[in-house]
Prior knowledge:
Number of helices: 6
Distance between the termini: 7 Å
Shape: globular
Bound molecules: guanosine-5'-diphosphate, magnesium ion
Radius of gyration: 15 Å
Number of strands: 6
Amino acid sequence: MHKDILKVVLIGDGGVGKTSLRNQYIHKKFTNAYKATIGADFITKEVETDDGKKVMMQIWDTAGQERFQSLGVAYYRGADACVLVYDLFLERWREDFLKQSSLPTEEARHFPILMIGNKIDIDDRVVSRRQARAWAEIHSSDKMQIPCFEASAKNGDNVEKAFAHIAKMVKIP
Ligand code: GDP
Ligand code: MG
């Protein structure tokens, strides 16, 4: 079966910049207004996989349910990759994803995860590049290395690169 839609879910604490990263990637726009999205939704964009296939990447964003600590099964169901956006603390979100997506243990170990440390335009960082890499290393496996990007939804640094990389990580049958 040829799969041509990739479901990608954005997860991470409220306020880390998930919505801003998606806006920057899709519309090349940034606004300082903090507006909780109403109803989880997705936006679709055509991207190219590693072997040159065109696929539609569906990028899901939350409706602000992250305030309730968990996004629930419907949001995660059928995801092909997840993007962990952080500025402070990641572990809880990875655990929540793996728990609620009900992947078999073996599959969960190799599931495509990509990290985006957002807001690099701000000087006062709390997570060093080394800490982020070390975290990714611990949770990577022989078959799945978690790539770490640092980006700014505000000025657009690395946003295109990070999202385009997702399509390169997903195996399409
Ligand atoms: P979400 O809750 O994860 O969707 O976060 P938002 O995208 O709504 O962003 C939360 C706040 O952080 C907003 O005030 C954004 O303007 C701000 N923000 C998001 N990304 C960046 C960034 O890269 N740099 C800076 N300086 N602020 C950002
Ligand atoms: Mg949001």
